[in-house]
Prior knowledge:
Elements: H1 2-14, H2 20-27, E1 36-40, H3 47-60, E2 64-68, H4 72-85, H5 88-91, E3 95-96, H6 99-102, E4 112-115, H7 117-126, E5 134-139, H8 152-168, E6 173-178, H9 184-195, E7 199-203
Parallel strand pairs: 1-6, 1-7, 2-4, 2-5, 3-4, 5-6
Helix pairs in contact: 1-3, 7-8
Amino acid sequence: KExxxxxxxxxxxxxxxVWPNHREAIAKGFYETxxxxxxxxxxxxxxxxxxxxxxxxxxxxxxxxxxxxxTHALVDQLTVDLQEMFPADVMGSVVSSDFDLLLLDNAQLRxxxxxTPERCLAMLSFAPVALKDVGLLVFDECHLLSPxxxxxxxxxxxxxxxxxxxxxxxxxxxLLLSAMLKNVDEMSEWVAAxxxxxxxxxxxxxxxxxxxxxxIIYDN
Length: 220
């Protein structure tokens, strides 16, 4: 409780207001430990920000977090964002994306490890014991689990990563994030069946900026 409150006070100094969509997600209890969730928010609507509430609860409980992002560029961006959200002097947490060190003997995960699904899949093969203290798997852009034409291999790797992680850390929660997922209720039911615990579906189309829409009609 002390760790959670200390982090909240620290964040409130930088971001004192909670957006309407985040309030709705909070009201559904997505951040509660022991509850997984599938959260769908438009681009720019604060997926990383709202996920920080769930991450903070896991860290406050003494567990670690694995944060999956589909590209190395996004891994680098999320690492910087999460380092700002979870400074070491507040919760004693360390955010890392130095994957190569994780394949060494007796490797230890940092409090928050950011990596691609492919790297996580490799870790599940070479160093699964390092994941035993993980309490949360966050999967950004989770629509990659869908095997659409042209990226079937990536979808298979992503799915094997999720299934393998659940096998190694069956008590860990899952937080799936996307701006493009259409079947959020179906995905939530699947996660609940996979983990054997509740999974909250949060589908919030609101975004903090106006959006212009138009139609272009060609003569030919």
